[in-house]
């Protein structure tokens, strides 16, 4: 049996009545990671039980994924039923479930380790987000993937499993445990703190559709004008396409019961085989599951988006949260959302950049066509071309997507950082942004080198000034939590499991010059660890203003893409080929059509943006300025300009690391206790 050093639980032999322990067979200890169980572990001679009969993938939240490795089936008795599994099939086990290693024979009860209970990230989260009276086993199921967040984390775990001798990251309990002391927070202790209080807009007037997600455990002012998943998935939805990496079906349905009543729900995901088996067997009848093709190893479907079809139009939401409880409740996250109407009959061939980019991206996902009957239209096939039926001319953003493959020729600048480069190259910026800083903020760091960082910076720095001078490279800053940030966060060290970057990636010498602090007092999110991913160029509190000959614009990118070659792509073959491993999707704020009315809504409760400039009504050029929450200017000083405040959660300019600051890496040992009395050790 392959073992790691933290005990997750035990398989305890029970008699056929399932109530009494069979003390003649010793209990089998289960460790974090992969465990193989067979007849040698049970001291039985039944040859129907192979030497590697089952594997148990044990997570720090106490859940197990059981897979049948032998040729004979097993059976699982859950609280609400019994299921037979044949070779290579999988299921999720929680505390109290019974495993029959041969159906009707060799009964073992899974018992979670009492010692491990206080070390789990679940145990930490439970202190501030467990619903009163909620059954712990249900909550365990909902959180079974906390420690698997992000594609890099999955890859790293696979490497750890293959290399048994390498040390693993475990949580080890400290001697005490205490709840969060809200009196110790720094929400109101610094200049600029609480400025999100003034970011208070009606939901039918969302500034460019960019909002932060609500975070439990924060003061009410910190959740001013934020959104929850119920604010997105609402109203009379006819078809839902949910694109994501991780999907906790149990939580998702409990959070949005309407998903069981929508006629068709297509879930495009990046889950592994074990979770897919669970989803497939337990999904509502109206759901269709699809995992896009991954032609290059170590890639994943990492995009996070929702496409909701209504009688009046379509809602497009692009965001940074996995479809799991912890992502929508405990993390700093971002979301962009806008509604678009159906095209008029005379405009069916009308096209725009947003539409073309969207359909190109959806086409790459290659999902099976779904036929549905819609009001007025009748029977239609839901494929990528279906989304050409909507009028996206009012879109206030451009899409920046990544699709796995080796992209050459006309496709070289279609995806990844080369797509961003091609869009920004058409833009003319104010002179103040020449050599101005670039900010990269994300939640997972790939294995990088200086050559690729220069390649990415070249794309991020694209554009020119009015006198046709290149903007030039600016100082690059990486906003990344320190160990102390994670230790003092709402979740304590458990938050670090969703910042899954190993020491070998984080502690490269050349990265030292980039590090900047995650500081978010003004939005109340200094202690809500970031899962949001943003990229921008700024000057003071302005986000790079530019002119496309008319009118003024700014750029700010919200995306699923972490800082990795897999997400953004890497140039090869003398820069003639871009290799991308993963699917990603983001929105680049380029309000080129400010003078157009963008107030359309698919629901009675809003969900769209309305940004109009008074001078544009008179035929004059309208200057657009994007600013952060900490901007100190006046919005009424110039009627020819429109100032739009974006709720960028972290402070600009970012504060560089001090000599005492240490960037977080999830596979190091930290013995200074966190806010819950825990330590973090391998």
TrEMBL record:
Organism domain of life: Eukaryota
Residue positions of the active site: 302 (nucleophile), 531 (proton donor/acceptor)
GO cellular component, one term: nucleus
UniProt: substrate binding residues: 304, 533
Residues marked Interaction with DNA (site): 564
Predominant location category: nucleus
GO biological process, one term: DNA repair
UniProt subcellular location: Nucleus
Keyword annotations of the record: DNA damage, DNA repair, Exonuclease, Hydrolase, Nuclease, Nucleus
InterPro entries named among the record's database cross-references: SMAD_FHA_dom_sf, Tdp1
Listed Pfam families: Tyr-DNA_phospho (PF06087)
GO terms of molecular function: 3'-tyrosyl-DNA phosphodiesterase activity; double-stranded DNA binding; exonuclease activity; single-stranded DNA binding
PANTHER family: TYROSYL-DNA PHOSPHODIESTERASE 1
Assigned protein family: Belongs to the tyrosyl-DNA phosphodiesterase family.
Name of the molecule in the record: PNK FHA domain-containing protein
